[in-house]
Design brief:
This protein has 1 helix and 28 strands. It is mostly beta strands. It has a single domain (29-344), classed as YVTN repeat-like/Quinoprotein amine dehydrogenase (Methylamine Dehydrogenase, Chain H), CATH 2.130.10.10.
Length: 346
């Protein structure tokens, strides 16, 4: 066989290979609706398809991230690394915020927050800025997520500001100051602390109703969900529970509030309990009766299917019927799952 014939044959084979290879590879599936679980025990995050609850990918990092937030376009996940220690306890004070691609869970960049230790809860505001608590500095950081740098701070007035919630227009932030037993009202454009209001006991977590009428925190010591008016930051009313509330989320129409906490002592099942309360009647209308595990993590109402999702430190996600609070399904996640969030890729 001549050398020219062999060369022509090899060229034809190469052309055939280049033509066939792409068609042999299945196109990567595009995931539009996403859910992330932040696991202290991994430590890191696990990303799920929110339509199927199937894992897409995961990423590890320093101990220990607690919370996360999706960018408004769903393409980036913001993950602060807090500390292996709990709030108020001595321990390592981490100072990193990761910018993670939701396409493959790769870390695209990491912001060192320097002296602003223990960054905890993030949320992207309607102004495009990323807001993150830095409790040891009595601050909420204002970060430009494109430049990936701190551009300002908001004063909280407390070294135990663990969580916050923001109105839809981004002009007001409300914080839960856990051990200080207060909530703070912050004027975002003015970058000033407006007032602090006592809660009558240590309070946990924070959320604003979708209609912007109330902000809510859970006062576990008094077994109450405390409602405050967003208009003036003052208390409006409480809803009493038969256990210890920890974290609340509203239904999309603001008519109901779901709260995850701990069942009363001696109750069966023990461990986690979820309550559904009617905001108008101020009464509990449903209570979970299934075994939901132990160790309260996060709670969210899925924008995809309307179901209530919760994480338990014992290592699982429980999916509840929003009307009856019966378990629809449960699936395992890495130990000590905490924050749970939904996002949509646009």
């Amino acid at each position: 066989m001549s050398s020219s014939f062999r060369a022509a044959g090899l060229a034809a084979l190469a052309a055939l290979t280049l033509t066939v290879a792409p068609s042999a590879q299945a196109p990567a599936r595009q995931h539009k609706n996403l859910m992330v679980v932040v696991s202290k025990g991994l430590p890191g995050i696990v990303l799920f398809d929110a339509d199927t609850d199937e894992e897409i990918c995961r990423q590890t990092m320093k101990p220990a991230p607690h919370e996360a937030a999706f960018s408004r376009d769903g393409r980036t996940l913001y993950v602060p690394v807090y500390s292996p220690a709990n709030i108020g306890q001595a321990g390592p004070d981490e100072h990193e915020i990761h910018f993670i691609s939701t396409a493959d869970c790769s870390i695209q960049a990491t912001l060192d927050t320097g002296d602003y230790k223990r960054p905890h809860f993030p949320e992207e505001g309607p102004d495009g800025m990323l807001y993150v608590t830095a409790e040891l500095k009595e601050s909420i950081l204002q970060i430009d997520p494109k430049a990936r740098k701190i551009v300002g701070t908001l004063p909280t007035g407390s070294t135990s500001t663990h969580f916050f919630a923001m109105t839809r227009d981004g002009r007001k932030i409300f914080t839960s100051n856990v051990s200080a037993a207060t909530v703070s009202v912050i004027d975002v454009p003015g970058k000033k602390l407006v007032t602090q209001v006592p809660t009558g006991g240590g309070n946990q977590r924070m959320t604003v109703s979708p209609d912007d009428k109330w902000f809510v925190t859970s006062v576990g010591q008094t077994r109450k969900i405390a409602f405050f008016r967003t208009s003036d930051g003052q208390p409006d009313f409480d809803i009493e529970l038969d256990g210890s509330p920890f974290v609340a989320r509203f239904s999309p129409d603001s008519k109901f509030v779901y709260n995850m906490g701990n069942a009363p002592r001696g109750a069966t099942p023990a461990g986690i309990r979820v309550w559904k309360a009617d905001v108008t009647s101020k009464q509990v209308v449903a209570t979970s009766s299934d075994n939901l595990g132990t160790g309260t993590g996060g709670i969210q109402v899925s924008p995809v299917n309307g179901r209530v999702y919760i994480t338990a430190y014992s290592g699982q996600v429980s999916v509840l019927d929003p009307n009856t609070l019966k378990v629809v399904k449960q699936f395992p996640v890495p130990m000590t799952p905490d924050g749970l969030f939904f996002g949509t890729v646009r």
